[in-house]
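Quick one:
INPUT:
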């Protein structure tokens, strides 16, 4: 997608990990961007390059706050990228209401805003591979069924997809939904890479791994993710289009730990395993085996430049450089 200089774009969660990289791309293309973020997990540092630029507006606000939503209604946006959510899957097993409110209720509130303003042509939503639960078909295509998520996070994302589809068909705008694999890269503040590096900085002799270490998933580098999202938006003609976005290979948690240890130049690190729950999962709701079928998005002309191992290693090097 090539943003027009006159195009007004809203990015919820635009100061977060994926959101800030998306803002970089949109601003570079010349769009007029409004970042809407409550800064719970995001930070203005992520978009500092653009602060003060007349094409960027920043609103500190949340989708659960009626006053903040009213401020959004005073502006009209042609494209809305909805990335605001609680990204920590683990929190759902102990505090399910957090995901319900911050993922599902927040999405409903945004959709209500779009219904009332009637100025948005397309909504772009970042969903997740966890909507599939534990599929019997690997790699898993978009038309796989039944969708049976095993985490509250996955359930609220799937429910959000359903709400978006209903609003789109009822109120006549378009939507592009991306079911993302594990996205990694600079500015990420959660996930296995961040956790392992923080643990090893505290104790360079031993690393605790949640689960049995065999959890095997695909990882995609952030720049590949943004390219896929913009291309899918440009090419999508249907009223609702769903794309898997990920890499074409997998890597397990133990191998990720070994890459991090190698990149941190540590020796004789003892790996210990918690054993996990439900057959070696890291936590309740942890999907042990995930690989998405990405042929649909590839048919548009996109493919990842980095595989899972390369994405992990590149991210680790970036993290180490930033903390050294």
């Amino acid at each position: 997608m090539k943003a027009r200089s006159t195009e007004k774009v809203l990015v919820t969660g635009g100061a977060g990990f994926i959101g800030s990289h998306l803002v970089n791309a949109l601003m570079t293309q010349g769009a007029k961007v409004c970042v809407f973020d409550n800064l719970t997990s995001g930070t203005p540092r992520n978009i500092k390059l653009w602060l003060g630029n007349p094409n960027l507006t920043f609103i500190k606000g949340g989708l659960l706050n009626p006053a903040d939503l009213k401020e959004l209604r005073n502006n009209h946006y042609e494209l809305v990228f909805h990335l605001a959510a609680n990204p920590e899957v683990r929190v759902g097993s102990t505090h399910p209401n957090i995901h319900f409110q911050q993922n599902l209720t927040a999405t409903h509130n945004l959709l209500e805003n779009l219904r009332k303003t009637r100025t948005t042509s397309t909504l772009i939503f970042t969903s997740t591979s966890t909507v599939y639960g534990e599929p019997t078909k690997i790699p898993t295509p978009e038309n796989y069924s039944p969708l049976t998520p095993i985490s509250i996070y996955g359930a609220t994302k799937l429910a959000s997809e359903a709400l978006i589809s209903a609003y789109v068909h009822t109120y006549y705008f378009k939507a592009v939904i991306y079911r993302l694999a594990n996205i990694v890269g600079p500015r990420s503040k959660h996930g296995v890479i961040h956790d392992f590096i923080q643990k090893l900085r505290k104790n360079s002799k031993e690393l605790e791994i949640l689960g049995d270490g065999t959890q095997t998933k695909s990882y995609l580098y952030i720049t590949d993710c943004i390219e896929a999202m913009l291309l899918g938006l440009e090419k999508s003609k249907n009223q609702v289009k769903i794309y898997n976005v990920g890499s074409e290979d997998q890597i397990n948690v133990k191998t990720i730990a070994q890459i991090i240890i190698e990149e941190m130049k540590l020796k004789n690190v003892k790996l210990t395993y918690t054993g996990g729950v439900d057959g070696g999962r890291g936590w309740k709701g942890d999907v042990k085996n995930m690989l998405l079928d990405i042929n649909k998005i590839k048919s548009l002309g996109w493919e990842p430049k980095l595989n899972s191992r390369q994405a992990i290693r590149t991210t680790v090097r970036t993290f180490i450089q930033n903390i050294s």
